[in-house]
Amino acid sequence: MFRSAALISFAFFAVAYGQQIGTLTPEVHPPLTWETCTASGCTTVDGSVVVDANWRYLHQVGSTTNCYDGNEWDFSICTSPTVCAAECALDGADYEETYGVTTTGDSLTLGYVTVSEQKNVGSRLYLMAAGSETEYEIFKLVNQEFTFTVDVSNLPCGINGALYFSQMDADGGVARFPTNKAGAQYGTGYCDSQCPQDIKFIDGVANIVDWTPNPQDPNDNSGTGSMGTCCVEMDIWEANSMSTALTAHSCTVTEQTSCTGTDCSAANATTGFCDQAGCDFNPFRLGVTDFYGPGMTVDTTQPFTVVTQFISSNNESTGTLSSINRLYVQNGNIIQNVNTNVAGITATNAISTEFCEQETTAFAETDTFDEKGGLAAMAEAFNTGMVLVMSIWDDTAVNMLWLDSDFPVGGTAPGDARGSCPVTSGDSATTEAESPNSNVIFSNIKFGAIGSTFSA
């Protein structure tokens, strides 16, 4: 994702955080079916989803006392990172009432603002392995394609309905970090290319050192600690009804890895483990302003299917990743991704090494994607395996302008215009007040051989 670690602002109010397993509320993962496909056809998989640990109620073991309240840790309980992990327990989730998350068959709905006993904004969920309560599903993507149907018709400017892959541990970090007792069953072990420092527990210990509440929004109970958590990230889908981006992020690390200081880095910086800016394919940013949106070629007023193909150099899963291709299916029509229309970029509708190099030159950016390993690093992560992530969020720092408006504000250079939303849009407080019932619906997830997951 484009945001830097300092800009992460998943807003979550009805939550607290931890690593032990609580017993106040049973954890029941909402079921979600999906399909694996070959040239011979597709087979249904009985999967489920789990909400991220960062959203969960965290309390002292054996009591209902919060370990984290408002946007501060209770240091009478959390006297050190390891003591906090031992003394605090994650509890089960009421997915619909607390987080606005519902599933029906192969369809997952993520609500934006949910008010029960407290207010919750957004969510982040992972696909669990079929038949398992303790491991995430692992996808190996080289020479494969991933397909889903999405409805963004109820996602206005400033809200992001995202579907992506992160190189998380299948067990949520339990094997590598024994102080993590909750694991994938309770949504632990998150990482991405932004090396986010807002994650409350990293490597099985509490991220309490130098904890600073989010200064951007006094009503947001998030913050940042001294640690971040890094890994390769493939943003299949970051979008609302106005704009969309397909973005690859490489890293020099080959598994979920904690960071501190300059290792966590920032967008466009050459230091740090990961490429935070990414090599992105946003049709509007790449010069085609009438391709994606209400009433356009890909009409966001109604559902459509998104197909992403990870092309191998030798047509084998062990080959080098040569390109990432995109197409859409809507109303029975296959819609090829649009070709770029930017001076200095050879017309293309796919992400490739040449495209990434040309894009950063055309937009006067640093090519951190290739510096951190580029498509070769992506292929290595893809062959190791990735976890599927689905989320809905707003942005208290820069109002999602990097996705759907002009960013930086007032910028007129090539690449600054990223969508048609006004630069005054996306303020999280305004969006939450005016569009609380927004949602994104992901359905009909399919994974398999190139050409096997879709038809006209």
Automatic annotation (TrEMBL):
Enzyme category, top tier: hydrolase
Protein origin, superkingdom: Eukaryota
Signal peptide extent: 1-18
Catalytic activity: Hydrolysis of (1->4)-beta-D-glucosidic linkages in cellulose and cellotetraose, releasing cellobiose from the non-reducing ends of the chains
CDD domains named among the record's database cross-references: GH7_CBH_EG
Regions of compositional bias (Polar residues) in chain numbering: 422-435
Gene3D superfamilies attached to this UniProt entry: Glycoside hydrolase, family 7, domain
A Pfam cross-reference name: Glyco_hydro_7
EC assignment: 3.2.1.-
GO molecular function annotations of the record: cellulose 1,4-beta-cellobiosidase activity
Entry protein name: Glucanase
